[in-house]
Amino acid sequence: MEDIFKEIEPQVYKSQISVPYQWWAGETASKFFITLRDEKKILGTECPQCAKVFCPPKKTCPFCYVDTKNWKEVGPKGKVITYTVVYRQLAALKKNVPVAYGLIQLEGSANAMLHYIEGIEPEKISKGMEVEAVFADEKSASIHAISYFRPVK
Amino acid sequence: MAKRRVAIVGTGQTHHRSHRPDVNGQELIHEAVTRALEDADLSIKNIDAIIIGNMDHFEGINYVDCWSIDGSGGYHKPVIKLTTGGTTGSTLAIGGYHFVASGMFDKVLIIGWEKNSESDTTGAITTAFDPVWDRLVFAGAISGLAVEAQSYMAKYGATDRDGARVSVRDRKHACNNPHAQLRKEVTLEEVLASPMLADPIHLLDVCPRTDGACAVIMASEDYAEKITSTPDWIWATANRHKYTYLGDVNWGELDSMAEASKDLFKKCGITEPRKQIDVIEMYQPYSFAGIIWIEDMGIVPRGKGAEYIWSGATDMGGELPINPSGGVIACNPIGATGLIRCAEAALQVMGKAEARQVPDVNFAVSTGFGGCMWTDMLLHGKKKPNL
């Protein structure tokens, strides 16, 4: 293998693609985030046909393909649908390992929200475990208005 | 070759705007899809497969076919993503035609969309160019088009006033189209006095950046005639890619369109396009292309494009109206733009183009253009094509 460059001097050009983005959350997600920021309430949207409540909220029910109508408060308690614990520190991770991610199905919601699970030793996390939202001190209209989910005592 | 006939039976578009902060991408898509379903009087349950596309890097979402499900209605359906740069929308239409013409699917939903407001268009487009050669020197889309215009002007003595006349036409036509982003007439003087972006292209010579989505439903013959009494039959499609590097282009002519046109017209028995075609929806991202590319299409001889434009022949009410919708200069959600041309041509054939309707359309042409000078074309007809 070491001989493949014997006769040539390969040139490699390093570069970076820089494309700035700004994503519009849209009216539906904006209402969710603003309510979360200002009232520390977690909302879902309800499908008028199948009556499923979605949190994260959806403007359109993907199963019935009709617009959701009513806003319903969900959580702040829920259960861990599934989870993993990350032990290898990767550049894209925003926290130091070990980091526990879980899919949290909030009470009253048909779907689940991805978030951190903290306040528990990672090896003690289990599927089906009852958890509750811990709201951040710093106000923000984003998913980080919830710091993490912790076990219900 | 097609195994069976294919027709467009419904179309839907958003009201395209520079920014749509009230919706995310999926919700924008949903607007176009529900309008297309309403137009065809179908429900999402009637759709057998979905083809969706947008520009690479524009929204920074890599698995759009999957991500868009909430908006596209693709839950538990076959969905495929196509993306070919500027031609994305027209490639989507050609892909939909292949899906149905091949006998694989009966009713296909085709979706093109873009939220241009979410990224830096020039930065994203630059990724289309070779990273070791052209990309180190060149950026964006406008300068390549300017080179084409300069080459043409040097060859045939056209002026920037000729280009401006095309912009005046398209921007006037756009006033008839409630879906167009820019609906304001401009004068020749205003075009020529607008800021110079890349010589000879002024700001008002070139397309804007737009948030918008378009959906088109194609069906096989069995279904098409049951869905609508005025199907838009797809007679043929043609596509040509030409080159990789900017230095390989035959600047001043669009070879890919010349060859795609020959192919398209031969397949359909069109021998005198100027007489036989009633309307063209051209993917014309800047004004000078409106002169150059009608020569490539064989509408007029080489060097005669400007004269034909000045005669008024391509204005509404003229011999061969071009871009009754206002075209790309008035509205450009890039991943949707080519599909909008196809949808607008379909509206013309179906007689549903309202204030922008050209009378008695038997044949319409829609085109797609990509920044590396490639071309897609579709021929739409009122009568059924021969198989």
Structure summary:
With 153 residues, chain A is mainly beta.
Description:
- The complex is a heterodimer of chains A (153) and B (387).
- Chain A has 153 residues and is mainly beta.
- Chain A has 1 helix and 8 strands; from the N terminus they run αββββββββ.
- Chain A has one domain (25-151).
- Chain A is extended.
- Chain B has 387 residues and is of the alpha/beta class.
- Chain B folds into 2 domains: 6-121 and 210-227, Thiolase/Chalcone synthase (Peroxisomal Thiolase, Chain A, domain 1); 128-208 and 234-381, Thiolase/Chalcone synthase (Peroxisomal Thiolase, Chain A, domain 1), CATH 3.40.47.
- In chain B, the strands form 2 sheets. Chain B has a 9-stranded mixed sheet with strand order 3-2-4-7-1-8-11-10-9.
- The chains are: A mainly beta (153), B alpha/beta (387).
Strand order of the largest sheet of chain A: 6-5-4-7-8
Radius of gyration of chain B, CA atoms, in whole angstroms? 19 Å
The CATH level-2 architecture of the largest domain in chain B is identified as 3-Layer(aba) Sandwich
Strand portion of chain A, in percent? 25-35%
Percent helix range of chain B: 25-40%
Indicate the CATH class of the largest domain in chain B: Alpha Beta
Measured by residues with Cβ under 8 Å of the partner chain's Cβ, the largest interface is: A-B, 21 and 31 residues
The profile of the biggest β sheet of chain A is: 5 strands, antiparallel
Total helical segments of chain B: 14
Q: Can you write the helix and strand succession of chain A as a string?
A: HEEEEEEEE
Backbone structural class of chain B: alpha/beta
CATH superfamily of the largest domain in chain B: Thiolase/Chalcone synthase
Cα Rg of chain A: 21 Å
* CATH fold node name of the largest domain in chain B: Peroxisomal Thiolase, Chain A, domain 1
Mean of residue pLDDT values of chain B:
96
Number of extended strands of chain B = 11
> Could you say how many structural domains of chain B there are in total?
2
Distance between the termini of chain B: 8 Å
Distance between the termini of chain A: 59 Å
